[in-house]
Amino acid sequence: MMIQAVEEYNDQSKEEDDEDLPRSLSRRQLLLSVIYFVSLSSFFVSSLSDSVYHQFLDLFLLLFFLLTRIIDESTGDAAVVDPVDPEKVIASAEEHQVKIKFVLTTHHHWDHAGGNEKIKQLVPGIKVYGGSLDKVKGCTDAVDNGDKLSLGQDVNICALHTPCHTKGHISYYVTGKVGETPAVFTGDTLFVAGCGKFFEGTAEQMHQSLCVTLAALPKPTQVYCGHEYTVKNLEFALTVEPNNEKIQQKLSWARQQRQANLPTIPSTLEEELETNPFMRVDKPEIQEKLGCKSPIDTLREIRNKKDQWKG
Ligand SMILES: [Zn+2]
């Protein structure tokens, strides 16, 4: 399975503390639309928010074009994840002769579902999938936990209900041919070294989503999340576990990536289990440090601390 990225639009302003808040469409911010190429016959597109500038676009384009030869061999069924800028997504798909078959929406917030109506206008008959509990704008086909979709010959997608950030949040677990590394598109539930805010759910639900549902996927699974918050998240993670060498190393790497205008996404599930404080709440030393007696209390406490943390 080959996965790669592409384009962005909009503005440079971004406040550090507005992570994954529902935003109005008029709010100026940077969005990064990323095209993920999955196997030789299909690809995915997602959107990431970021605080970087237009040179990032150039680097993504460079990466993208380096992979063009693989795309040229494809026959071209495609799905797009959270396409906020459908016109660019469609132009890119046409340029590379791939055909968008459907949209996978992780949740109802505008910076994920905000392009659905437009893409329906531009691609007549396109299906738009979204969680049945989430009132996703433009949704044509609601999905529930365990629902399966297929794309092209080799790509299978399983909807995983991962609620809390929103009630009906869905993560999409994607597998390709035998031997290919799977991927999961986690929207605003699981970030690299972090998790989404608990807008519509409880610590119990986030624990189930992160530490049961997602944690059960194969460790090499590549994690594609909805926003590039990695450096800040790792800085916060170090406040929870100052002596965790994996966090220290990954923070150092992530800073280098960002300084070079390169992404920190994807991560892997294994890396998240080693560095993401929200997925490490079963560790007695972390529970003890926070004065908590259970993984769920610990998760709630870490989220509270992160919500107040100014970095
Ligand atoms: Zn969100």
Sequence of secondary-structure elements: EEEHHEHEHHEEEEEEEEHEHHEHHH
Beta-strand fraction estimate: 15-25%
Gross morphology: globular
| Alpha-beta classification | alpha/beta
Number of domains: 1
Tell me the CATH topology. Answer: Metallo-beta-lactamase, Chain A
Mean pLDDT: 78
What is the radius of gyration computed over CA atoms, rounded to a whole number of angstroms? 18 Å
Helix fraction, binned, reads: 25-40%
- Specify the number of helices: 11
Keywords: Hydrolase, Membrane, Metal-binding, Transmembrane, Transmembrane helix, Zinc
EC number: 3.1.2.6
InterPro entries: Clx_II_MBL, HAGH_C, Hydroxyacylglutathione_Hdrlase, Metallo-B-lactamas, RibonucZ/Hydroxyglut_hydro
Biased composition (Acidic residues): 8-20
What order do the helices and strands come in, and which of them pair?
Blueprint: E1 7-9, E2 31-38, E3 42-49, H1 54-66, H2 68-72, E4 77-81, H3 86-95, E5 99-104, H4 110-113, H5 116-122, E6 127-131, E7 141-143, E8 148-151, E9 155-161, E10 170-175, E11 183-187, E12 190-191, E13 194-195, H6 203-213, E14 222-225, H7 230-240, H8 245-259, E15 267-268, H9 269-275, H10 284-290, H11 295-308
Parallel strand pairs: 4-5, 5-6, 6-7, 11-14
Antiparallel strand pairs: 1-2, 2-3, 8-9, 9-10, 10-11, 12-13, 14-15
Helix pairs in contact: 6-11, 7-8
The protein binds zinc ion (ZN).
Domain Metallo-beta-lactamase: 65-227
Family: Belongs to the metallo-beta-lactamase superfamily. Glyoxalase II family.
Protein name: hydroxyacylglutathione hydrolase
